[in-house]
Design brief:
The complex is a heterodimer of chains A (193) and B (212). Chain A has 193 residues and is of the alpha/beta class. Chain A contains eight helices and five strands; from the N terminus they run βαβαβαβαβαααα. In chain A, strands 2-1-3-4-5 form a five-stranded parallel sheet, sandwiched between helices. In chain A, helix 2 runs parallel beside helix 3 and helix 5 packs antiparallel against helix 7. The longest helix of chain A has 37 residues. The two termini of chain A are 24 Å apart. The model of chain A has no long low-confidence stretch (mean pLDDT 90). Chain B is α/β, with parallel strands linked by helices. The chains are: A alpha/beta (193), B alpha/beta (212). Chains A and B meet through helix 5, helix 7 and helix 8 of A and helix 3, helix 5 and helix 6 of B.
């Protein structure tokens, strides 16, 4: 995210005219960075929200770039741009989504929007988890009477409830197989405080 | 498809709207798995399919347990087991095999595949038997996230989620964190040889204990 709140999209594509087109489509809503090689992508990836990663590139391949991004623990969603529909093998490969090549404008924009929403869902889940933990801790330490009389506890319950409602809206995407599996993977692998 | 899901006689409380997630908690003596199976049975009798994530029993053992409690034979087209229990056993109900309850992405993949040819508008019940075992093989953080995401998918698909947990085997803190994820929590207990249940959560707080 930039300082003024615009999400940052990194376009990794070795063909300049294709990269140019993507940038034209995206520039209205996003801060766009462009990388022509995998090596360049890795030097620009820090601080990005979404990476559009061409799978077939000379030099470092898309798969190699992805595993390096994950190894560095950069918190971004990565969409693979690929000529073949990988179905949900994509989840095992570590990607969050895919766009078939050549993408149409609305597909590309739709995918980025979905991925940003998924990032938001994930941070909601983590926030809800920390509130639930706080609630459980208080329940452990105080009697039901003390809790009923505590404004702080009642506020906490209200906060959990409103977060639950917000998250419910964000979770509509989970009906989609890829979104569900990629989210599950992101939230259950290497996820311990 | 807007009809509520009837939970059957073994669970106190009214039917729940599509997209609800229900947690059934109780110690061994209250047989929460059997109660969960009875919720599935209430659907199977209406031809509503069930997808069961089984972390405690093989599909074959589940089939046997079901047969002991309910007369109608299980239809493998309707009763689809994702077996992550590590116990094998020949069963037509077993759709997917996942090597361990700690492989939560694998479990999710199993649920997706087991549900693939059930139409999107078919009221379907999804059970996790049990959340306790998943928690034992993982951490509270991972189990919380898994439950959040799976329950979210069940809600997004207008299905019914049925999860079981034995609260006596976990710290109160873990139990109290996880219960925040459910629309309804059904608590079971055994007192003086009688099994009792009550519904907690919801606007009216806890209901009184009633025998079942």
């Amino acid at each position: 995210m930039t300082d003024d709140g615009r999400p940052v999209v990194l376009v990794v594509e070795d063909q300049p005219d294709v990269a140019e087109t993507y940038e034209l489509w995206l520039a209205d809503e996003y801060e766009v960075r462009r990388a022509a090689t995998g090596e360049e992508a890795l030097s620009l990836v820090e601080g990005t929200d979404v990476v559009l990663l061409d799978r077939m590139m000379p030099g470092l391949s898309g798969d190699e770039v992805l595993s390096e991004i994950r190894a560095r623990g950069v918190d971004c969603r990565v969409a693979m741009v690929s000529a073949v529909d990988p179905d949900f093998d994509i989840v095992e490969m570590g990607f969050d989504d895919y766009v078939t090549k050549p993408p149409r404008r609305e597909d590309l924009l739709g995918t980025i929007e979905d991925l940003l929403e998924r990032s938001e869902y994930q941070s909601h889940v983590r926030r809800q988890r920390s509130l639930a933990r706080k609630k459980a801790l208080l329940e452990d330490q105080k009697s039901p009477e003390e809790l009923a009389a505590s404004d702080a506890f009642q506020d906490l319950l209200a906060e959990i409830e409103s977060l639950r409602e917000e998250t419910d809206e964000a979770s509509d995407q989970l009906a989609d197989d890829t979104a569900f599996l990629a989210t599950l993977r992101d939230l259950t692998e290497d996820e311990d405080d | 498809m807007t009809e509520d899901f009837a939970l059957g006689d073994a669970v106190p409380g009214p039917a729940v709207p599509p997209g609800s997630n229900v947690l059934i908690t109780g110690g061994r003596a209250t047989a929460p798995r059997r109660v969960a199976l009875s919720v599935l049975a209430a659907g199977l009798r209406e031809e509503q399919p069930a997808i069961v994530v089984s972390a405690d029993r093989s599909a074959r053992q589940l089939e046997r347990e079901y047969g002991e409690s309910f007369e109608d034979p299980l239809d493998p087209d309707l009763f689809r087991v994702v077996n992550c229990s590590g116990n094998s056993g020949d069963s037509d109900c077993e759709r997917e095999w996942v090597s361990s309850p700690s492989d939560l992405t694998g479990v999710g993949m199993g649920v997706v595949k087991a549900g693939r040819d059930i139409g999107p508008d078919v009221p379907t019940r999804v059970a996790v038997l049990s959340l306790s075992t998943i928690l034992q093989y993982g951490t509270l953080d991972r189990t919380f996230n898994f439950t959040h995401v799976l329950a979210g998918r069940i809600a997004a698909e207008d299905r019914l989620g049925v999860f079981t947990m034995d609260p006596t085997t976990h710290e109160d803190r873990a139990v109290n964190s996880l219960t925040t994820l459910f629309d309804r929590v059904v608590e079971l207990r055994e007192a003086d040889g009688t099994r009792e249940g009550r519904v907690v959560g919801g606007p009216r707080g806890a209901t009184a204990w009633t025998p079942f």
